[in-house]
Inverse folding.
């Protein structure tokens, strides 16, 4: 409980719907191209909603753990939308077609990370609707490094 308000931490690995609206508004000002690209981890074991968009290809990202991702194209309005039947999981990787920004919401973490121009990051950091902090390559991003949203 913070300041007398009972606040639940976000679910790990998904972008909360209330965050997606303000974030979409900011991101849309920094890209001239639709569609966006959405990476959905294929290890969830659920089917992606077929009515959202056509699957374009499956790719392997060589990250720690070697997760495999399915890649989809769609409009920015899909940011924050659940991709999978029977779950609320959103895309874990999102970027604009013109590569002006990218976002990752790791399946094991409570936070999302966004890269882009200095102006984009400043707009995100100053948005009152978003809980945002600047980060650097030296920051600890393990599951237990978020002291505000830790379980």
């Amino acid at each position: 409980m913070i300041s007398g308000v009972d606040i639940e931490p976000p679910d790990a690995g998904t972008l909360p719907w209330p965050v997606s609206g303000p974030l979409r508004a900011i991101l849309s000002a920094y890209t001239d191209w639709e569609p966006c690209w959405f990476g959905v981890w294929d290890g969830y074991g659920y089917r992606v909603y077929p009515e959202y968009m056509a699957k374009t290809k499956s790719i392997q990202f060589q990250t720690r753990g070697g997760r495999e991702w399915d890649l989809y194209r769609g409009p920015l309005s899909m940011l924050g939308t659940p991709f999978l039947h029977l779950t609320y999981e959103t895309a874990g990787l999102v970027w604009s077609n013109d590569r002006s920004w990218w976002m990752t919401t790791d399946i094991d973490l409570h936070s999302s990370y966004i890269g882009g121009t200095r102006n984009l990051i400043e707009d995100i950091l100053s948005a009152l609707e978003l809980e945002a902090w600047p980060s650097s390559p030296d920051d600890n991003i393990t599951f237990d490094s978020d002291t505000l949203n830790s379980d």
Remarks:
- The radius of gyration is 15 Å.
- The first strand starts at residue 36 and ends at 41.
- DSSP finds two helices and six strands in the chain.
